[in-house]
Amino acid sequence: MSDMPEAASGPAARPVSLSISVEKPEAALHLVATPIGSARDITLRALDVLNAADILAAEDTRTLRHLMDIHGIALRGRRMIAYHDHNADRARPAILEALRAGQSVAYASDAGTPLVADPGYRLARDVIAEGLTVRALPGPSAALAGLSVSGLPSDRFMFVGFAPSAAGARRRWIESWIRVEATVIAFESPRRVKQLLENFCEIEANRITVICRELTKKFEEVMRGTAAELVQRIPDEGLRGEVVVLFGHPEEREASEEDLRAALAALLGDMPVKEAAAQVATRYGLPRRDVYALALAMRKEDE
What we know:
Elements: E1 29-32, H1 44-52, E2 55-58, H2 61-70, E3 79-82, H3 88-100, E4 105-108, H4 120-129, E5 134-137, H5 142-150, E6 157-162, H6 167-177, E7 183-188, H7 193-204, E8 208-213, E9 221-226, H8 227-233, E10 243-247, H9 257-268, H10 273-284, H11 288-302
Parallel strand pairs: 1-4, 1-5, 2-3, 2-4, 6-7
Antiparallel strand pairs: 7-10, 8-9, 8-10
Helix pairs in contact: 3-4, 6-7, 7-8, 9-10, 9-11, 10-11
Catalytic activity: cytidine(1402) in 16S rRNA + S-adenosyl-L-methionine = 2'-O-methylcytidine(1402) in 16S rRNA + S-adenosyl-L-homocysteine + H(+)
Domain Tetrapyrrole methylase: 29-230
Main location: cytoplasm
């Protein structure tokens, strides 16, 4: 979810006076949730920390500067560090050094809550390993916003991140969670969302599915239906804007040996027998020893 936030506009918008404190945050890594669309979704606490932290780190420094400009927060000569997938190993030592020196560091992903499908995971893990402090500033999350408007059960849900781009890997990825008794939340490129649903329909075309597009933005859209119905509504070139895809709970049915063999076959080429059996057993709610025995039999058949 990487679009820059939109400033408030339109006839309903009016100036609002905000009081942003300058109290110095504690020496910690502050994970700052930032808007996924509307810039006004930022929290007052997030503005306080962005205004007063010693160092600012961001997945995209331009996006963070734009957000700060919207809210009138000046950089005031403070250091801003880019921290993303391509430079994380180089940027991480400087952030750790600053924290060890007693400085406060605010980290923001492109949009939404840091560490959710975001490179900040290793940063937070290493900060914790050093015995230093990590603080979370709750706020916008595309996954939770999508769950909120989907109408799907929210008592148990599973976030599975971004779908793999390669068709084969995407099918294996779907197989790894399709039988989990939970609402499943995924991120997908708007250009590939049709392919994702086509792959899903190969297994369960009638699963209730929801596509949320451009959440919190001017052209927000929520599409609901079965996976097969939504495939027909999506043009071949895909959609436009940021997309969250949610799948309802699986249909209740007993797994046949054919189902188990197919599920195991999709995993055995990529992982040990024991791990594959554990995943399939969890997916279908079966005893691990029984699925493990079937997996061993399949391996011997192949040999």
